Amino acid sequence: MKWGATLWIYCALIVFCALWGVTSALGNPYQILGVHQRASQPEIRKAYKQLVKEWHPDKSNDPNAEERFVEIKQAYELLSDPDRRQRYDIHGITEDDFYKKPNYAPLHTNHPFEDLFAQHGAHFNFQENDITFFHKLSITTRQYDKIVVPKSRKTPYLIFFYTDWCFQCIQTAPYCRKLVDYLEPLGVNFATVHSGREKNLGRRLSIHTLPCLVLLLDGDIFVYKETITSIQRIIEFIRNKMPYKLVTKVNSDDVDDFLNGWDDNRVRGLIFEPRSTIRLRYLVTAYHFRHRVAFAFVDSHELRSRYQVPHDMDTVLLFNENTSYPMASVSMKDIPTPTLQHIISSNQYLSLPRLSSQEVLESLCPEEWNKPRKKLCVLLVISSSHVFHPYRQSFMYFSQQSPYSVEKVRFVYVYYDKQPEFVNSLVPEGEIIQPLLRLVVLWRRDMSHVRYEWVPGKWDADKNFSDTTSALEKTITRLLKPSETLPNEASVKDLVDEHARGLMGRIYTRVIQFIETTYEGMTRDQILALFSILGTILFILGIGYFMAYLVRIEEESIQKHKAKTSNNNNDGINSSYQPELRLHEMRSESYNALVRLLKPGCRTIVLVLDMQSRQQLIPPFHKAVWPYRKNKTLMFSYIYIERGLKWYKELLQLSLPDDRDLNINPRNCVGTVLAINGHRKYFCVFHAKHMERKKKKKLKNGPTTTAATEFDCESGAFIGFNSDSSESDDSILLQGTLLDGFSNWLDRLFEGTTQRFHVNYWPEFPIK
Asked: Where does the sequence pass through the membrane (predicted)?
């Protein structure tokens, strides 16, 4: 019993020492942050922010502040990752070991049937078809999400899906080896996935058959459906799936437009090859640097002579703002991809780059909390308007003549109209600073905190040294000293990506990618079934539309029959007649809409009546204007003379050539029709008893006829009607016959032969 108890004690001690050796590097992250083991993510984040402010080396005088700060940061990184936190809670593991390759290889390196076949004289090349080649390159789902997908933003990935007992997978092993040997030097990575152990990943990538090859570009999946035995077809597949217009084609006519397009904050690169098509190695390189460098393939002998490019060699030229000659070049028979990437990465920014995204800021102005190793960024704030281009040019000239090294000082500029939040965060509270054409020196201590100092004075567009340049040089020289620090501090948010697509563009791209991914992941049988379903749906929709068309035709036929029957009934109008055309009563509420606010070309036909004549005049008026009901320029109305007598009298007075007081009998006005043009300020008048008088012409060598001088309000002479005693009609008209000639008058109205009476303004309608 004693020996057993001693053995258990030793085992527990060994386990404790092992766990202590694992966790001693970091310690207990919960104790470091001062939170409970069941603390939520917001609580952990809050505790981390408080401790960082307290133990930052620039704010704390404790000699162990730097070690404590690193320890807090590592503890927060562990607890903010759910998987690492779970492993620590269960096993006490603090390191992140998901980068280690899974061990899928069998225990024996030789094939298990190699000795059996060798005894019978059969020799097979099991070494070439050995499936352990796939095991060595195998990745897990976590590695795919954490490593492969982020890296695919700059590096294309070919992913091969296989299983252990897949005969076709074994057959494709030698071709995959050749594919890896050919593509890896070009910058294309190759990985494998064991479908038996990573089933969820296979379902996510729509893998239906094995073996299967998948291309991953910026997180987008493209399934290769042809046989894997043809390397040339795989290369063409990769070329065709590269982003659209990744490398444009230029000649001597449009090369200047391409080189001068650096306003997008990208360096320009020209690729020369002795071939008519660009090779995959340059496409992969262009994909890797597509956010910083815009490439073009040159197919012009004139440009080769212009830049003195050898005809039998591959050449790459890089241009910045100065398009007259390249800032870097490389020319070889076959340019190795590492050499090409090294040259481009060393010259991937313009002479004066713009802070157009957070990625550019982190690359040009990296974070550094240590004062002796700090890197300063001199920032010029301008606008994207062309007016500010001379200021940018002069600042670029100053940066090129600057004696400071790029490792210590970087000159950049920013558009205030595109990054207002970032610039405004650099204005100290309580101070009034106009940021445009001002210089500010930045030092990024961490991801979100910067220290800064504004240079006094505005930047001058003149290239000559002025007071501002002298002040800037003194400020930089002073701040480069390890003992100096920048006076102001601010917390800034990430910069807006100026080159990101809009909402509609992102939606369109995602829809196209979804369609392509779905199509690539479908088999032939699935495509036929999909077309069958779509055909059935379209057939049903077509039948439904045809039936709806027949129903609509039947309804139109019924409506026409009803209208015809209604018109026949209108021939014998009786007292029970119900008008189908809407007539508006002219009142003070509707006066502006019917007269003053009429649009150009529109008119209102107004019938003058009283309460006693309403039942007798409305039906014939409605019948006369019925044919014009579909004319959108006409409105039909009626007015009670008892209510609008004042307005009617003032309207007639405005139409007279001289000012006279009119004595109007309201009963004689019943049956009058006014055609009012509110925009042109004139009206035409119809009355059955007083017909319009034609204008008399002036005879040659003869007297000129004059109009009647008598203005009888009741007879209509005041509006130009014939009032001669010889032509006057003393016959008595009944109310039912007042509108007998109204239809003919409407025809003459639309022909333009009726007399027009102009007014200077429309009188006010009385309010009752």
From this structure: 527-551
Fold category of 21-91 in CATH? Helix Hairpins (1.10.287)
DSSP per position, 381-404: EE-SSGGGHHHHHHHHHHHHH--S
Would you place residue 109 in the very low, low, confident or very high pLDDT band (cuts 50, 70, 90)?
Answer: very low
CA–CA separation, 734 and 266 (whole Å): 90
Q: Which two tokens stand for residue 508?
A: 């369109």
Q: Are 21-91 and 584-758 in the same CATH fold?
A: no
Report residue 305 as tokens: 């002579």
CATH number of this structure's domain 358-491: 3.40.30.10
The full set of domain ranges for the chain reads 21-91, 114-240, 247-346, 358-491, 504-550, 584-758
Nearest to 408 by CA among 380, 349, 368: 368
Q: What is the pLDDT of residue 528?
A: 80
Return the half-sphere exposure (C-beta side, CA atoms, 13 A cut-off) of residue 521. Answer: 18
pLDDT at 31: 86
Q: Enumerate long-range contacts of 73-81, CB under 8 Å, 24 or more apart.
A: 74/26, 74/29, 75/26, 75/27, 75/29, 75/32, 75/33, 75/48, 76/29, 76/33, 76/44, 76/45, 76/48, 78/26, 78/29, 79/29, 79/30, 79/33, 79/35, 79/44, 80/41, 80/44, 80/45
Three-state SS for 311-349 is CCCEEEEEECCCCCCCCEEEEECCCCHHHHHHHHHHCCC
Cα separation, 233 vs 231, whole angstroms = 5
Contact by Cβ (8 Å): 360, 265: yes
Tens of pLDDT, residue by residue over 713-735, are 444 444 444 444 334 445 566 77
Query: What span, in angstroms and rounded, lies between the C-alpha atoms of 324 and 256?
Result: 10
For the ranges 65-74, 96-105, 732-741, the one whose mean pLDDT is highest: 65-74
The answer, yes or no, to whether residue 86 has pLDDT greater than 60, is: yes
Whether residue 190 contacts residue 341, with contact meaning beta carbons closer than 8 Å, is answered with no
Whether 161 has a pLDDT exceeding 80, the answer reads yes
Q: Given phi > 0 = left and psi -120 to 50 = alpha, else beta, which region is 437?
A: left
Spatial contact of 139 and 193, defined as CB atoms under 8 Å apart: yes
Contact in structure between 513 and 220 (CB atoms under 8 Å): yes
Distance CA 351, CA 405 (A): 13
247-346: CATH class = alpha beta
pLDDT in tens, 472-519: 889 999 998 888 888 898 888 889 888 877 667 667 666 766 666 666
Does the pTM exceed 0.70? no
Distance between CA atoms of 632 and 603, rounded to whole angstroms?
10
User: How many C-beta atoms surround the C-beta of residue 262 within 10 A?
Assistant: 19
